[in-house]
Amino acid sequence: MVHGQAKGRSAIVLGAGMVGTATAWHLRQRGFDVVLVDRRVPGNETSFGNAGLIQREAVMPYAFPMDAGRLARIAFGMGNDTAWRARDLPTLAPMLARYFWNSLPGRYDPICMAYERMVRHCLAEHQAMAAQANATGMMRAGGWKQIFQSQAAMKTALHHAKEVAERFGVPHTVLDGATLAREEPTLQRQLAGAIHWTSPFAVSDPGGLVKAYARGFEAAGGTLATGDAQTLRPHGAGWRVTGEDGDLDAETAVICLGPWSDMVLRPLGYRFPLFVKRGYHMHVALDGALATPMLLTEQGVTMIPTPSGLRIATGAEFARREAPAATRQITRSIAIARTLLPIGKPLDAAPWRGARPCLPDMLPALGPCARHPGLWLNFGHAHQGFTLGPVTGRLCAELIAGEAPFIDPMPYDPGRFDRQRLGVLNVAT
Ligand SMILES: Cc1cc2nc3c(=O)[nH]c(=O)nc-3n(C[C@H](O)[C@H](O)[C@H](O)COP(=O)(O)OP(=O)(O)OC[C@H]3O[C@@H](n4cnc5c(N)ncnc54)[C@H](O)[C@@H]3O)c2cc1C
Prior knowledge:
Blueprint: E1 10-14, H1 18-29, E2 33-38, E3 53-54, H2 68-75, E4 82-84, H3 89-102, H4 105-119, H5 122-132, E5 139-140, E6 144-148, H6 151-168, E7 172-176, H7 177-183, E8 193-197, E9 201-203, H8 206-219, E10 223-226, E11 233-235, E12 238-243, E13 246-250, E14 252-255, H9 261-265, E15 275-286, E16 294-296, E17 301-306, E18 309-313, E19 316-318, H10 328-340, E20 343-346, E21 352-358, E22 365-368, E23 375-379, H11 385-401, H12 416-419
Parallel strand pairs: 1-2, 1-14, 2-10, 4-19, 6-16, 14-23
Antiparallel strand pairs: 3-9, 5-9, 6-8, 7-8, 11-12, 12-13, 15-18, 15-19, 15-20, 15-21, 16-17, 17-18, 22-23
Helix pairs in contact: 1-8, 1-11, 5-11
Bound molecules: flavin-adenine dinucleotide.
Protein name: FAD-binding oxidoreductase
Keywords: Oxidoreductase
Pfam family, one: DAO
């Protein structure tokens, strides 16, 4: 259903990942004449190959690790959850320093409050879009399990789970090793136990869900176009992009290009501290089934049952977005998964690689561009863009339409980076 209050208003949304597709959807719902532009079909980049979890539990974003032991493990390449490319570290250092600064307890807490205010809406916003797009069947309730090899790691994670339950009301159940073995009989050996986050949804085809939302957008009167976002330029009182079939003009343009957002913003004179945490996946044959997706916490290995086999996804790799792929982390992840599950041959010719679009304060950049009227931003969703797309898409559309926003948008205002000195962050508590 289209609200229709904004008759005559027009928008170009650049980038048809989960974030851009949801932004275009919500603008169309408010009566905007919307063109959603991508160089590829919708949902074929980062939103294609992720773990497909709609993470209701992810109320506290991934902070820079502060534990000396963990940092040493990462630095010496001993763990598998985080990897880095040495020659890219000088380029990444300024962003990582600000990421570290924002992860200190006094700064991290208000960031969590701002993050939770978005995450708490993720299930309802996905459900609303999925119902209209006839895609409810693509989302599976039942949550996912964080599994542990050691009691020590489980104990640390239980502190976090307790905080998430007590402060934010997100439920979980605790499984000891024997109960986990009963619930997941395909596991080949008994582990220390698991935290079962019961409220998230799992989507076995994340790119498929974005495509279903894009079809719903088209069915509601939106237009999909192929084109290069880097052709964006001011035109009259609005904006113009050159698509494959000619020029596209609108009063408003919204940049939702995820990890590529800087490529359009730099020529316009904006320098956002955008960096990426890359990740890989590969499908393998599994002799058996899993009741829910599972993350082996100590090693950062996610195992997601899908109709195309078991999807094994990696944690974070700090590297430049375009640096050549490094297969070590995914190869190790498959080897680690093989110690737990009866895994057969790889089903993909090569690993898939994606890039989580990150900002050093762990919050997206969402709001108007200070020096360019009619230009809006919605990018930088890091580890949870698949979860948050429908939430920030709605918030962005409400702001553009001049409606009362359903979430206080101030913490996500892109202007905070102009105001920041040495990573000082202006976040409402
Ligand atoms: C291994 C891995 C696992 C993850 N697991 C989860 C998870 O379980 N849950 C979760 O919530 N998140 C997860 N994430 C994070 C999530 O995938 C991202 O945050 C999210 O996909 C970002 O969405 P986006 O729309 O901003 O970017 P994208 O999906 O990358 O969309 C950007 C779009 O811009 C287009 N584009 C780029 N340049 C141009 C151009 N010049 N012209 C036109 N179009 C252009 C691209 O084609 C693309 O379609 C995971 C990420 C990884 C890597």
